User: What shape does this take?
Amino acid sequence: MKHAYVLATLAALNALPAAIAWGVSGHHAVGLVAEQFLSKNAQAFVSDILGESYHSSLALASTWADSVRDQPEYKWSAELHYMNTKDSPRTNSCTVELERDCPGGRCIVAAMGNYTWHLLQAAQPRAQAEEALKFLIHFLGDVGQPLHTEALALGGYQLPVICEGQVTNLHWVWDEAILDSRIVRQFHGSVRHFASWLVRDMKHGAMSRTVASWYKTPWSLQSYKEQIISDSEAQAPFYNAVYDEDTYLEWTREANAHACTTVFDYRMREELCEGRYANMAFQVIIGQIAKQGYRLAQTLNDIVDAVEPELRPRF
Ligand SMILES: *[C@@H]1O[C@H](CO)[C@@H](O)[C@H](O)[C@H]1NC(C)=O
Assistant: This one.
């Protein structure tokens, strides 16, 4: 089963069919971008945890969380893929408030902190570390999709819109349709080509001027490091990443802001997957995938740096 899944995923990465489902291509692209910004130590850490079942690839591991969310034993994880942000994008008011939008700490911001914390725990079975990593990879992708940080019409699922002449819903247009149609038309149907093009721009092109400003170490990871430095005896230093307002909440706010500027800016019966709207949305999607890919890499680099080499998991 596992091998069949990996082979299918590998095939999908090489020649992504148009219909494949932050959808599969969005997550793969975030993973492929991140792989190009991982430190050597983080690469080793990821390989160690993911091992052969994912060819040590962030991209291949990135969609596991979607594949289990409907299984009875993982039903609890479904609500961690998004934040039900109850703001008002149609009246141009985009705000994210933890108390209002993350009741009981069950939302994507809390989940990112939670799985960062889990990954820092040196003494845990490999399967648990693998699960934490796969959740973290996935949620760092999802949080970049503006309709994963918006409650209106269930994140757009309930809004019928037109894409390539067919009626579909707005959420799907943002998760998959616009990105997949661009990948087919401009990148020979290959998510790898799309990701390489993004990485080139991030390293040498227009985006290279801003990349470094996209990430700052979460205060919680910083304090974790400081604590280790100041108290090398500490077995399990205090660590609370769950509500990292500076970092994880900031990313959520950034994605949510697109709900006010772009996502709902269409007219009745407008074609959304070609022309004006698609061009505008694709620019947002490019930026969000680049950012989340870079942030995923830097988060993992920081997690690995925060753990003393002898405390890092070894499996
Ligand atoms: C934190 O991770 C544990 C282990 O997977 C899970 O049971 C719990 O629901 C998670 N909570 C959040 C908010 O992510």
In short: The first strand starts at residue 160 and ends at 163. Residues 2-309 form a domain with the P1 Nuclease fold (CATH 1.10.575.10). The two ends are 22 Å apart (CA to CA). Residues 35 and 181 are 24 Å apart (CA to CA).
